[in-house]
Design goal:
This protein has 407 residues and is mostly helical. The chain has 15 helices and no strands.
């Protein structure tokens, strides 16, 4: 703690925010894999397991919308710490005897975890805006990319950790370890995080949860369809297809997807280099349009590969890897642009509205992934993914071609 205190205040706060976010994300990924593996062992189908997370996604929509207002009203330090505390409670709910782990109870715990996750994420992303001078957009892009990329890498690590803890300690033992470690992280954050970080100078009205910025609204709409494009085939359809069509075992599916998420996070963290960022040039709306247009090609090619049986497994897995890299760049660009566009006074209002759209995209994608796959198949999911990416590209035309905040 002494070494942390000796750092410059801005760096110290950035490390605290990032560390807080990392601790939460690790438990989030671990919990998801624990629930998937545990209920798979109880005989649940992949679609039934996916539906356990329905409230997790739904309450993410609500939380981001209201959480932005709470962040501006209470301060980001408080909303971040509230998120950590709620995750501790959500994990503790799963420490009950196995006979109590009914579907409604687990869905309720996942709902609380979803609220906690989006409070924590909204707070972390908003806080970065306040720690970087407004003229240093290249530094802002780099810090946002590192925060976003490291989060997804740790989520992938959490997938592996969930399987390992379940094997070593069992379901309740694994949950118990996470409760203890996250509670310690929460206490540390309570003591060290700057007070009133991100609190608006003027108390925001509740009606302010809806953004009045044209740039933020356009970016939020693009984000909704971007994440819908990923989850419409990735969440339910892809794991089930790999298991049913290619006879992959559960560990093969989980391990491959965990590696995919880790690689996805790594690409996100280096996105500033891949998009040609330098001190004189940072991304704008045109950059987002170009990368969305490139991404559009991939689900089309995978769908054609499956339709005409042209090396279907190689086409699917190779396409998934390319899609993941390109999607990571698109996601990182969006994450930078929202922080750049957001107003400094009450930054969490704009960021919360944007991540509400993000959560809505995940919710729509999750539901459609199960429904479309079950009724039509994976190829239809991929064509729908391509349509969503196309809509993202069209919406991106409306984004400003500069990165100064636009109100």
């Amino acid at each position: 703690m002494g070494g942390l205190a000796s750092l410059p205040p801005v760096i110290r706060q950035y490390l605290l925010v990032t560390g807080n976010y990392w601790a939460f994300t690790l438990t989030d990924g671990t919990l998801r894999m624990l629930v998937v593996l545990h209920f798979h062992g109880l005989g649940y189908t992949p679609l039934e397991i996916a539906l356990l997370f329905l409230f997790y996604e739904f309450f993410g929509v609500v939380t981001n919308l209201v959480g932005g207002w709470l962040g501006a009203f209470l301060g980001l330090n408080k909303t971040m710490n509230i998120g950590l505390a709620m995750q501790v409670i959500a994990l503790s709910m799963l420490l009950v005897p196995t006979s109590w782990l009914t579907v409604p109870w687990v869905m309720a715990a996942q709902a609380l975890s979803g609220i906690a996750k989006d409070l924590n994420k909204m707070s972390a992303k908003s806080a970065i805006k306040l720690l970087v001078p407004s003229h240093a957009q290249n530094i802002l892009y780099k810090w946002v990319a590192i925060l976003t990329g490291s989060k997804n890498t740790l989520k992938g690590v959490g997938f592996f950790l969930g399987g390992a803890l379940l094997s070593l300690l069992g379901f309740q033992g694994a949950i118990g370890v996470m409760v203890i470690l996250l509670a310690l992280a929460w206490l540390f954050s309570l003591v060290m995080l700057k007070k009133d970080l991100g609190k608006a100078t003027n108390k925001p009205k509740f009606s302010d949860i809806f953004s009045k910025s044209r740039a933020v609204n356009a970016l939020s709409a693009a984000r909704l369809f971007l994440f819908g494009a990923r989850d419409v085939w990735f969440v339910v359809a892809l794991p089930v297809y790999l298991a049913v069509t290619f006879n992959w075992g559960h560990w093969h599916v989980g391990g491959f997807l965990a590696l995919w998420v880790i690689g996805y996070g790594f690409v996100q963290s280096i996105a500033p280099k891949l998009t040609g960022k330098d001190a004189q040039h940072v991304p704008d709306g045109k950059t987002a349009l170009v990368w969305a247009s490139i991404l559009l090609v991939i689900p089309v090619l995978i769908a054609l590969s499956l339709t005409f049986s042209i090396y279907p497994l190689a086409g699917l897995l190779g396409g998934l890897l390319i899609f993941g890299g390109l999607f990571a760049i698109n996601s990182s660009l969006h994450s930078y642009l929202i922080v750049s566009y957001a107003s400094e006074d009450g930054v969490s209002l704009d960021v919360g509205f944007y991540y509400m759209a993000n959560a809505m995209g995940r919710l729509v994608g999750t539901v459609l992934s199960g429904w479309i796959y079950q009724t039509v198949g994976l190829t239809a999911c991929l064509w729908l993914s391509a349509l969503f990416v196309g809509i993202t590209a069209v919406i991106s035309i409306a984004l400003p071609t500069h990165t100064t905040p636009v109100q």
